UniProtKB/TrEMBL annotation:
Residues 79-449 form the Solute-binding protein family domain. Residues 1-20 form the signal peptide. GO terms for molecular function: peptide transmembrane transporter activity. InterPro entries: Peptide/Ni-bd (IPR030678), SBP_5 (IPR039424), SBP_5_dom (IPR000914). It comes from Rhodobacter ferrooxidans. This is Extracellular solute-binding protein family 5.
Length: 538
């Protein structure tokens, strides 16, 4: 058994996935103050088993904890409610030792029974968790989702502070799964007392606890005085105000009335903000685990020919498209974003080469081009991006008819395979956790190519599916470099087959008021969006 302890910083730095040393606090941070944040819309739920959108993700992370966690402002794993764990030599068994004395917001101490209850709950069909599938590697998962079991066979309470989790297959992503919101530990009595409305009455072990929720108006978090991480959080509370139009929120920020406009910088105001030194000084920029791409249906002519798909890649002027969105992104070369482990840094991607693209089309039997449809979500800036793509493809003889539709209609056409091309904007993949596998299965693997799936290119390469399974079976910490190289090879083969034309990687821009302190990364945290636990009032 390989034993991993909170105190063994060097060992943690070398394990798989990359576990890191504890966060070094900002020496200027101080306790106190309440941060005010605005949003146009209220959140739907604060139940960690249910919540799955960009807005509630950060809130849930501050109310709840899981066995694993991430170092603030990074994609590096660290220990959470587990103070140590052991992995069996075959990678099929994990034994977690829990931190003693951790209390839920209701005052009760957390135990291993709570961990088991929470994992059972998130995988029970009755919970209807959108994250259930992340736990498919745990032994007994199939029986749970199939309705023949009500408890995960692979999760066992050893003693009040020890839980054992057995897998049906080695899976190097397992520790990441233990860090996502869906793995948050919740108290059974609070869930049952909420009578189906736990999302409005959340109780966790997190740095903050909810003290008020006036639907449609305001949501209030207060500092958890019993939080198990000493000295955290810094803020006494966070107040969210709803019903605020983004332009109004920007004006309130400029007037010093709020601290963060939750919906970000309004697109119509972006250039104005960036051109004004005073406003630009309040802007914080960071990477997002996101790629915007064009899918091409490889199962239907003309995109069943790889030369055509490569020609499309070469015809796209990515730099110009980035300019269309005021340089709020960087040109992409491959499916993985640069901040993702496994990204191939020395791969330049397909060059922008109009004449080369024309030559490829001629070789494919389309010297005069062809006509096709491009599906796009009808919200700004996506139609403008689609128009730029349309112009680029016209330059090589491809006539593109734009199908600008509501998001559900684009999703339906992509899933059904009736969309020859789809611009992913507004629907593009943002990683659930920072592991290269998360960009493959749902959107490039064979399972995702089934009707209704998110693999809108309908690309299915069985050899790559096998390679993906092999890569994720490398759960031995000593094989980290080998595993990342395997994933790099998989994505380089994807680019050779060219089911996508990757266009850009989003960069997140937010603003913070002058009184707010904390490292910039905490306001554009790649995992939590805004990390409420570590920002502070100066």
């Amino acid at each position: 058994m390989k034993k991993l302890l909170a105190s063994t910083a060097l060992l943690l730095a070398l394990t798989l996935p990359a576990l890191a040393e504890e966060y070094t606090p900002d020496p200027n941070a101080k306790q106190g103050g309440v941060m005010l944040m605005t949003y146009k819309d209220d959140v739907a739920t604060l139940d960690p088993a249910i919540g799955y959108d960009w807005q509630n993700w950060s809130m849930i992370r501050s109310l709840f904890d899981g066995l694993m966690d991430y170092v603030p402002g990074t994609t590096d794993l660290r220990l959470g409610l587990a103070e140590s764990f052991e992995i069996s030599d075959d990678g099929l068994s994990y034994v977690f030792k829990l931190r003693p004395g951790v209390k839920f917001h209701n005052g009760r101490e957390m135990t291993a029974e709570d961990v088991k209850y929470s994992l059972d709950r998130v995988t029970l069909p009755a919970t209807q968790s959108p994250g259930s599938g992340f736990f498919s590697m745990i032994k007994g998962y199939d029986a749970m989702v199939g309705g023949t079991a009500t408890s995960l066979e692979g999760v066992t309470v050893v003693d009040p502070l020890t839980v054992k989790i057995e897998l049906s297959r080695p899976d190097a992503t397992f520790l990441h799964v233990m860090a996502i919101n869906f793995s948050s530990v919740v108290p059974k009595e609070a869930v049952e007392a909420a009578a189906g409305d736990f999302g409005k009455m959340p109780v966790g072990t997190g740095a903050f606890k909810m003290t008020e929720w006036t639907l449609g108006q305001r949501l209030v978090f207060a500092r958890n005085p019993d939080y198990w991480r000493a000295g955290e959080p810094y803020l006494d509370g966070v107040t969210f105000e709803f019903g605020q139009e983004p332009v109004v929120s920007l004006l309130r920020l400029q007037n010093g009335e709020i601290d963060i406009p939750g919906d970000g910088i309004p697109p119509a105001k972006f250039t104005e903000v960036m051109d004004d030194p005073a406003q630009k000084a309040m802007v914080v920029q960071g990477d997002v685990l996101h790629t915007g791409y064009i899918t091409m249906n490889v199962t239907a002519a003309p995109f069943d020919k790889v030369e055509v798909r490569r020609a499309v890649n070469m015809a796209i002027n990515k730099t110009r498209i980035v300019q269309v969105i005021n340089n709020r992104a960087a040109p992409a070369t491959q499916p993985l974003p640069p901040a993702m482990p496994g990204y191939t840094a020395d791969y330049a991607g397909y060059p922008y080469d109009v004449e080369g693209a024309k030559k490829l089309l001629a070789e494919a039997g389309f010297p005069d081009g062809f006509e096709t449809d491009l599906y796009v979500v009808n919200t700004d800036p996506n139609p403008r991006i689609a128009q730029a793509i349309q112009q680029d493809l016209a330059a090589i003889g491809i006539t593109v008819n734009l199908q600008s539709l509501a998001a559900p209609n684009v999703i339906e056409a992509g899933g059904a395979g009736t969309a020859p091309m789809v611009w992913s904007g507004g629907l593009a993949w943002v990683a659930d956790f920072p592991d290269p596998s998360n960009f493959f299965g749902p959107i490039l693997g064979c399972a995702g190519a089934e009707p209704g799936g998110w693999n809108w290119a309908k690309y299915c390469n069985p050899d790559l599916d096998k390679a993906a399974v092999a890569a994720d079976s490398m759960s031995d910490p000593a094989k980290l470099a080998e595993r990342l190289k395997a994933w790099s090879d998989i994505y380089m083969k994807v680019m050779e087959d060219a089911p996508w034309a990757p266009v850009f990687n989003d960069q997140r821009f937010t603003m913070r008021g002058a009184r707010m302190g904390g490292e910039g990364a905490l306001y554009v945290d790649p995992i939590a969006t805004v990390n409420f636990d570590y920002v502070y009032v100066k």
